[in-house]
C-alpha cells in the first residue's frame, strides 16, 4: 500500500474566538479524488487554504508527499518552516479559487506562463507551448490573447485551472470553483474537471456544493461540521445512506434548496 | 500706474529662465516624491514593527511641519552639520520629501484596493514576495492612482515659489529681482500669475486625460 500524499494530523485553527478547525486529521492517497462537503463555516474551505499556505495553523502537523509542510526537520528537530521551505512545498500544490483571481492586467497567455517563467525559469517559448496545450485542454486555445475582462465567468475559471496546471502540481485544490458562476456556465467548468480526473493521476481535493458532481467525481466524500470530519465514505454511502444525523440533516437541507444529488 | 509692454518685453527672457527652473524643480521633485512615496508606503507595510512605526512617525512629522521650514532646515541648517547643498538640489529634496509623504497615502490606498485574492493567487502560483509586488500588485495598484498622483504634482508646482526663500532662481525669485531692480511690480507679478495659470490649466487638461486613460481598471 502506497504512503498517503497528504497527512493532516490534529490541526487546529481559530479566527479570533471562533474555532474553525478543531483537531482535524485526515489522509489522502496519491491520485485520490476527494470531495469536501458541509455547511458554511464548517472548516472545509479553511483546510484547503491551509494546505495552500494561505492561512497559518495554530497547532498540529501536515505532511505533503512525505515532507512536513509547516515545519522543517533540522538535526532531528522540527522547526517552524521558513519562506524558502514553504516555497519548495508550494510547488507540489495548485489551487483554483471561487472568484477565479486571474491577473486582470495580463492576457490569458501571460496568466498561464507567468508562474512557470518566474518560479521555474522556463524559457518563454517552452512556457507558451505548454500553455497552449493546457488552454487547448480547457477549450480556450482561441482566447490566448484575450484579457480576463473579455471572458465569461466559466471561461475565466477554465483559464484559472490552466494556470494552476501550468506548474504541474501533484495536488490540485478546488475551492467552490463553480459557486460564483451563472448556472448555465457551471457545466463547462465541471467538464474540464472530469477530463482532468480521467486523463491525469493528480490528487484532487474539491470543496463544493454541487452534490451531483461530487457524487460522480469523488472516490471519497468527507462531511465537515464545526471543524471536524463527522462522516466519510464512498459517495453512495454518504449521499444515499448517511449514518450521522448531522449529515442527514445537511443533505436534506441541500436537497430542499434545489440541489440535485 | 500703467501697464508697460516695453517693460514686459525687456523682462521676459529673465522670467522664462525662471519658468525653466520652476518646471525643472517640479519635474525632479515629482520624480523624487513618487519614489519616496512608494518607499514610505512599502516600509509602513513592513512586518518589522520598528521599521513601520518609525517610518510612520517620520511621515507624520514631515506632513505636520510647513514646507518652508523644511526648506530652511535643508538649506540653512544642514550646512552646520557639514551637509552643504546647492539651492536647487536642496529645493528638490524638500519638495520630494514633503510631497512624498502625501503620495505615500495615495500608494497606500492604491495598494489596499488590490483585492486580497490577487495576493492569494500570487502565492498559489508560488511567486516570491518580490515577484508578487512587481508583477502582480504594483502593476494593478499604480494605474488607478496616476490621476491622484498628478494632482499632487500640480499642487507641488504651485508651491515652487517657496524655493525663492532658499535662493533658487525660479520664476518667483526672478520676478522679485526684476521688480526690486526697477521698482515696478505690476508686470512681473502679473506675468508670474499668468505663467502659473497657463501651465496649471494645461496640466489640468492632461490630468483629465490621465483620469480617462488610467482612472479605472477592468476586472
UniProtKB/TrEMBL annotation, chain A:
Annotated compartments: Cell membrane
Its name, as the record gives it, is Ectoine/hydroxyectoine ABC transporter ATP-binding protein EhuA
Q: Which GO terms describe its cellular component?
A: plasma membrane
The entry's family comment says:
Belongs to the ABC transporter superfamily.
Q: Does the keyword Nucleotide-binding apply?
A: yes
| Chief location bin | membrane
Any GO MF annotation of the entry: ATP binding
The alphabetized UniProt keywords are:
Amino-acid transport, ATP-binding, Cell membrane, Membrane, Nucleotide-binding, Transport
Q: Which PANTHER family match?
A: AMINO ACID IMPORT ATP-BINDING PROTEIN (PTHR43166), GLUTAMATE_ASPARTATE IMPORT ATP-BINDING PROTEIN GLTL (PTHR43166:SF9)
Give residue ranges for domain ABC transporter. 6-251
Gene3D superfamilies attached to this UniProt entry: P-loop containing nucleotide triphosphate hydrolases
InterPro entries xref list: AAA+_ATPase (IPR003593), ABC_ATPase_HisP-typ (IPR030679), ABC_transporter-like_ATP-bd (IPR003439), ABC_transporter-like_CS (IPR017871), Ectoine_EhuA (IPR014343), MetN_ABC_transporter-like (IPR050086), P-loop_NTPase (IPR027417)
Query: According to Swiss-Prot or TrEMBL, what is its membrane topology?
Result: Peripheral membrane protein
UniProtKB/TrEMBL annotation, chain B:
InterPro entries the record matches: AA_ABC_transptr_permease_3TM (IPR010065), ArtM/GltK/GlnP/TcyL/YhdX-like (IPR043429), Ectoine_EhuD (IPR014341), MetI-like (IPR000515), MetI-like_sf (IPR035906)
Q: Identify the SUPFAM superfamilies for this entry.
A: MetI-like (SSF161098)
GO CC annotation terms, alphabetical = ATP-binding cassette (ABC) transporter complex
GO: which molecular function terms?
transmembrane transporter activity
Q: Which Pfam families match?
A: BPD_transp_1 (PF00528)
All copies of the ABC transmembrane type-1 domain together span 19-207
**What are the BP-aspect GO terms?**
amino acid transport
Compartments it resides in: Cell inner membrane; Cell membrane
Q: Which residues cross the membrane?
A: 20-43, 55-75, 81-99, 189-210
- The organism's superkingdom is given as Bacteria
Indicate where this protein is primarily found. Answer: membrane
Keywords, alphabetical: Amino-acid transport, Cell membrane, Membrane, Transmembrane, Transmembrane helix, Transport
> What is the membrane topology listed in the Swiss-Prot or TrEMBL record?
Multi-pass membrane protein
**CDD domains attached to this UniProt entry:** TM_PBP2 (cd06261)
Which family does the UniProt entry place this protein in? Belongs to the binding-protein-dependent transport system permease family. HisMQ subfamily.
Q: What's the protein called, per UniProt?
A: Ectoine/hydroxyectoine ABC transporter permease subunit EhuD
Q: Which organism is it from?
A: Mesorhizobium tamadayense
Amino acid at each position: 500500500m502506497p504512503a498517503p500524499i497528504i497527512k493532516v494530523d490534529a490541526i487546529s485553527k481559530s479566527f479570533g474566538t471562533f474555532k474553525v478547525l478543531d483537531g482535524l486529521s485526515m489522509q489522502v492517497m496519491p491520485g485520490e479524488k476527494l470531495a469536501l462537503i458541509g455547511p458554511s463555516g464548517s472548516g472545509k474551505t479553511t483546510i484547503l487554504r491551509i494546505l495552500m499556505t494561505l492561512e497559518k495553523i495554530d497547532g498540529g502537523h501536515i505532511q505533503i508527499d512525505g515532507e512536513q509542510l509547516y515545519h522543517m526537520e533540522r538535526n532531528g528537530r522540527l522547526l517552524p518552516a521558513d519562506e524558502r521551505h514553504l516555497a519548495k512545498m508550494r510547488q507540489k500544490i495548485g489551487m483554483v479559487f471561487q472568484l477565479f483571481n486571474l491577473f486582470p492586467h495580463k492576457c490569458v497567455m501571460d496568466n498561464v506562463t507567468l508562474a512557470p517563467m518566474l518560479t521555474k525559469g522556463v524559457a518563454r517559448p517552452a512556457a507558451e507551448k505548454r500553455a497552449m496545450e493546457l488552454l487547448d485542454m480547457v477549450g480556450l486555445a482561441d482566447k490566448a490573447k484575450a484579457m480576463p475582462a473579455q471572458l465569461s465567468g466559466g471561461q475565466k475559471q477554465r483559464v484559472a485551472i490552466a494556470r494552476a496546471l501550468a506548474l504541474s502540481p501533484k495536488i490540485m485544490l478546488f475551492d467552490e470553483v463553480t459557486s460564483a458562476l451563472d448556472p448555465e456556465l457551471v457545466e463547462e467548468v465541471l467538464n474540464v474537471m472530469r477530463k482532468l480526473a480521467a486523463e491525469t493521476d493528480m490528487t484532487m481535493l474539491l470543496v463544493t456544493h454541487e452534490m451531483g458532481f461530487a457524487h460522480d467525481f469523488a472516490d471519497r466524500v468527507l462531511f465537515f461540521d464545526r471543524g471536524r470530519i463527522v462522516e466519510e465514505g464512498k459517495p453512495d454511502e454518504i449521499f444515499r445512506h448517511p449514518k450521522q444525523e448531522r449529515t442527514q440533516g445537511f443533505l436534506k437541507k441541500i436537497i430542499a434548496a434545489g440541489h440535485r444529488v | 500706474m500703467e501697464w508697460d509692454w516695453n517693460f514686459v518685453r525687456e523682462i521676459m527672457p529673465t522670467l522664462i529662465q525662471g519658468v525653466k527652473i520652476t518646471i525643472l524643480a517640479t519635474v525632479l521633485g515629482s520624480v523624487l516624491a513618487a519614489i519616496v512615496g512608494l518607499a514610505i508606503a512599502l516600509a509602513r507595510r513592513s512586518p518589522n514593527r520598528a521599521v513601520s512605526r518609525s517610518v510612520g512617525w517620520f511621515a507624520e512629522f514631515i506632513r505636520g511641519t510647513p514646507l518652508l521650514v523644511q526648506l530652511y532646515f535643508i538649506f540653512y541648517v544642514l550646512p552646520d552639520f557639514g551637509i552643504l547643498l546647492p539651492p536647487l538640489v536642496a529645493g528638490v529634496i524638500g519638495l520630494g520629501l514633503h510631497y512624498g509623504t502625501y503620495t505615500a497615502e495615495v500608494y497606500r490606498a492604491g495598494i489596499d484596493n488590490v483585492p486580497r485574492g490577487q495576493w492569494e493567487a500570487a502565492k498559489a502560483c508560488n511567486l516570491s514576495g518580490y515577484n508578487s509586488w512587481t508583477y502582480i500588485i504594483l502593476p494593478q495598484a499604480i494605474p488607478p492612482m496616476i490621476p491622484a498622483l498628478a494632482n499632487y504634482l500640480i499642487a507641488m508646482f504651485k508651491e515652487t515659489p517657496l524655493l525663492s526663500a532658499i535662493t533658487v532662481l525660479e520664476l518667483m525669485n526672478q520676478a522679485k529681482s526684476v521688480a526690486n531692480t526697477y521698482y515696478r511690480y505690476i508686470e512681473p507679478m502679473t506675468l508670474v500669475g499668468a505663467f502659473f495659470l497657463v501651465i496649471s490649466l494645461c496640466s489640468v487638461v492632461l490630468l483629465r486625460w490621465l483620469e480617462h486613460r488610467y482612472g479605472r481598471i477592468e476586472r
